[in-house]
Design goal:
globular
């Protein structure tokens, strides 16, 4: 009986570690509205020190679409998620369409960190 309890605790710990993302994107949030061609800010909690040097230049991409058909829109830039700074501003491309299925993805390891869907007012 004790053995089963130990195995269950170990398994749940592994699942928690495997699903833990280095960053939790705070902004943009689901109620956010970004404007094409303007400077917008990404904010997060957590850090990616475990990524080592790669965490100093994590790629930030704009993606769009429903979950069944997500596609890449643009690379917004890079952020350093290894330190105490938790915000970074990026210029949103000017030629993108209006839609409410955009999201920001930070290419962290072992899993990417993804924002909620938000709206972009575009062309």
């Amino acid at each position: 009986m004790k053995f089963l309890a130990v195995v269950a605790i170990a398994a749940s710990s592994l699942v928690a570690m495997a699903s833990a993302k280095p960053l939790q994107i705070k902004s943009p949030a689901s109620e956010s509205v970004w404007t094409a061609g303007k400077k917008m800010t990404v904010s997060w909690s957590g850090n990616c020190k475990k990524m080592g040097e790669a965490g100093r230049k994590a790629t930030v991409d704009l993606i769009a679409g429903p979950s069944s058909a997500v596609h890449y829109v643009a690379t917004l830039g890079y952020l350093d998620c290894t330190g105490s700074k938790k915000t970074k501003s990026f210029n949103l491309p000017g030629g993108i369409d209006s839609d409410n299925t955009y999201a920001v993805i930070v290419r962290t390891v072992p899993e990417p960190s993804i924002s909620y869907n938000f709206e972009v007012k575009g062309r």
